[in-house]
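Tutorial handout. Part one gives the primary structure; part two gives the three-dimensional structure as tokens.
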Amino acid sequence: MYKSFLLFAVLAAAFAASVSSAAVVHIIEPYAFNATNGTTILLGKVGPGQTFYITINATTDNSTGFPVNYGWNVLNASALPPGWFAQPQRTDSLSPTLEIRPSPSSQNGTYAFKVTATNTGNYSGLGSVTFIAVVNVTPDVFSISVSPNVLHAVIGVPAEVQINISNFGVSDNPFLINASGLPAWNRTIQVIALHGTSKTFSYPIVESTPGTYPVNITVSSVSSPLVKQSSHIQMAIPQSLGNDYEALGYGNLLFPIIYEPVYAVLYIIDLILR
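Part two.
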């Protein structure tokens, strides 16, 4: 009887090992991929200091191909590069998630670490699956295009620049948009262009003095100042009598000082006639 029990134990262990080795981790994010024990997955690009996520499906398959609900509920990382951070998220859910953040001081290059899918207490009987995740750390994770090249505007009226952000990295960290080169304009807005997507945002600019201004539009990652792109455009506000009146209303002197009283009166008349 003891021999029969021993044989049963050996066969059960062998079966469990075969099930574990045949179990599959269905990766959802940053893109769909099926990983087995020892598989290597190339995740893509991420900027230094940018957070990204690996999300899997809790449902898996056993050695016979039969689906196992809640086969995985924990996702952990190990053998991380120095200074990197990893934290399991959304355990005991339909989509266990692992948060990963490379060190902000990571040098450009390719890095690898281990990711292990398990079930708490091994209630699924699948054991665990460990795969190798490879990511390329580089500030070159997105591109921008800005239009128009010359922005025609009216004094005091917001003129909108269209900024398209193509995010070909794996991070969903927000971006900051700002402009420099104008006398008094200094506004920053925050936007999100999800990984693997291209999205266009409107960015308003206002100026109170006629002229032609070189404007530098900069888009940068919230989490990493090294991840940024810039584009140069011109903002043109034509000089006209109406614009001159408006400029005086903003407190700007566009004429020699001896004409200031005259144009101040003209400005007041313009306000009355409106």
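Part three, for discussion. The radius of gyration is 30 Å. The chain has three domains: 2-137, 142-238, 239-274.
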